[in-house]
Amino acid sequence: MLSAPTILATCKQTRFHLLDDNPTPEIDVEGLSITVTSAAPEAVDDSKLKAKGKGKAKAAGRELISDGHLRLKGGTHYGLLGRNGTGKSTLLRAMAEKLIPGIPHPTRIAILQQTDDQDESGSTYGLKLEKTALESVLSSDETRNEAVRLVDVLSKSFETEDPLEPVRAIRKIRHEQAGKKLFLAQKNANLKSGARGLQARKDLKAAEAKLESTEELLSQGSDAIDAEAVQTDTQDAVEMLQTLQAQLEDLNLADMEKEARRVLLGLGFKEDTLGKQVSTLSGGWRMRCMLAAVLIQKPDIMILDEPTNFLDLLGVVWLENYLQQLRDTSPTTILLVSHDRDFVNAVCEEIVILKDQKLNYFRGNLAAYEQDFEEQKLYLGRMKEAQERQIAHMEASIRENMKIGKKTNDDNKLRQAKSRQKKVDDRMGLQVSANGGRFKLNRDLVGYHLSSRAEIEVPTDERGATMTLPDATELRFPGPLVSLEGISFRYKKDDRVILDDINLVVHMGDRVGIMGLNGSGKTTLIRVLTGQLVPSKGKVTTHSRLKLGYYGQHSVEELQERGRGEPGLTALSLLMTEAGDSLNEGAVRGLLSSMGLQGRIASDVPVGKLSGGQLVRLALARIVWSAPQLLILDEITTHLDFHTVTALAAALSSFNGAIILVSHDRFLIRAVIEGKRDTEHKLDDDFEGVEEEEEESPVRRRAVFVVKAGKFNEQPNGVEQFEHSLVKRVHKMLSQ
């Protein structure tokens, strides 16, 4: 039986790594390899290891990073890029759990992970369910929690009349500390070899002896403790208590509570919800609590995995500004993953690219990286084309000289052919040196063992599979697809009005974007549009031939639940069941392939094993197979990486039907609804925006609306207008 997946991380260790016992916001680890294996290392067959001889045995599993270089400078904000499935989250987890040997154990690392696992203590997202939101955030700092616990233990020992109680307390604490040191010594001994390994094993024996000594003292009876030991241990307990109290005073609990309150309010909490128990909060609000807990800790390294997933645009803008301020006021290093391009651009100073099992670095934000990438691709592509033409010409000349030389027995022709062949073999390749200057063989390729230049490698796009939507079914007669006339809605007669006098008409080809803060009524409006809710007042009219495709916020969760209930269900079998006789297997495979689910992924991988991005593609395939005229998409980017968001924007831009898009992603709204080819973001070549629309085609209606206080307000200046209003609010919040 296989155990749970295990992360195995190895790296080259220098003497600086081995001797560094101090926390640091910097990481410099070479030769990093990370493998995910489903079998514990002990379960590997010994006979297989022996068969390898003296070679280094590798654990069976999937290697995500091979001989990489993890390099993070202190105080710098990094964005981690890579397609879904390349190992970004695994790398972050390996860092947070200090599975990478080159990261000093005392380094404080706080991580926000995309997980809803609940541990044995009853906490989820690392939060205690029985505590209030504010209390849970304050209690999330493990360093402070440990100091508070020790102060409590020591203080209570002095409150008793028993003079031996402080002695027992300090001995118990020493025993716990000795156990922790033994754990680190064991880890150290396992990682080192040679002379350093010998010293590490000596340290391990000393740690074991220390643990035995503290255990022996802890188990001593009252009669066995002499007066001198009582005096010494009591004095040690007093000094430790004073030191810990001084540490807590430096942390300043009042300031921490003020900061926690400010962060929670910035992330969307109201004053009256700060006192609610975590157990009563939804998953999205618990994630906000966890994000707040990470932000207030001010660790050495802060890791944020998709921090914007459950935030509305006000929360995203607030977090952008908060992290920008943190860059100037704190030495904390930040490494984040996000599909929100605008957020990455605003926050990150450098980009880390995980591609082909390697880590590459770019100094600048995402916009600068994409511009540089395109320039490099164009430059190196032209260089390679020119060199290929040159090589073809030289090879033709070599063949001609060889032919003439052999025919006429001309040694000069043969020498000339040999010389040119040597140039083709040894002097073709990259025409620039590592410093960017012109390549010189005697300077840049020194050494008898080096015989040729580096091959020209043209960078390839990292956007993953493209997406293509089928054209909408033609309507037999014209008319609006859907219209709302004077729509008002409230859940109960005495409840507040959620939607108030909303009017909207959508025709074929229209683009409508809906934005607004969480709780403003966007999803309620969509449910009225799709017929899931009946309006309290007003009229909803749809075209008699309308085919509607609806992607809801919980579409991925529904697929995950169905995958758990039907372990053998695949994307192919699911779609063939739903399409019935309308599509044959070939057509279904073609549709899934056009959505980026090709071959065995569609037919062999169970739905329960698909990644979040693959489930989004499957959910889209489920709603477009019938070629609907209207697509309604509610927060579709949550599980996607930014490469897939770009592909999605290109696919939606060329769709000939109508689109109603609810999203907090400013890039997606600008690209799909406003039709703008963003100068800061490279879109796919088949993107069809305002500039690409054909002159003979009817002009599409493009409108961005904001739902606020039940009203449906059009934004003449689109996303920019709404974002500007939120920036003003954020500046007021941060200045308080």
From TrEMBL:
Residues covered by the ABC transporter domain: 49-381, 482-707
Organism, as annotated: Penicillium malachiteum
Coiled-coil ranges from the UniProt annotation: 197-261
Subcellular localization(s) per the UniProt record: Membrane
Any single GO CC term annotated in Swiss-Prot or TrEMBL for this entry: membrane
Keywords: ATP-binding, Coiled coil, Nucleotide-binding, Repeat
ATP-binding keyword on record: yes
Protein name in UniProt: ABC transporter domain-containing protein
